[in-house]
Design a protein that fits this description.
Elements (H helix, E strand, L loop, with lengths): L1 H18 L7 H20 L14 H5 L7
Length: 72
């Protein structure tokens, strides 16, 4: 199910960026903000301390947007 969630979210990001090209320059900032939110959500969903999850994304923005890439 997590693979499906990733695929759906990637499509949503791609669509939003296409509809709002003015967001392109803010992509790095938005990526880091989204990762921070995802880190908190992962902590809540797993009942693990937030510190278990890396503070900085362990993947690049390009990897996050690549529809074929999945974390190991």
């Amino acid at each position: 199910s997590w693979r499906n969630t990733i695929a759906v979210q990637r499509r949503g990001v791609k669509k939003r960026l296409a509809e709002n090209p003015s967001l392109k320059p803010r992509e790095p900032e938005l990526f880091l903000d989204a990762y921070g939110t995802a880190r908190l959500e992962a902590s809540s969903e797993t009942d693990l301390e937030v510190g278990v999850f890396p503070e900085a994304p362990p993947f690049s923005i390009e990897q996050a947007k690549d529809e074929t890439w999945l974390p190991e």
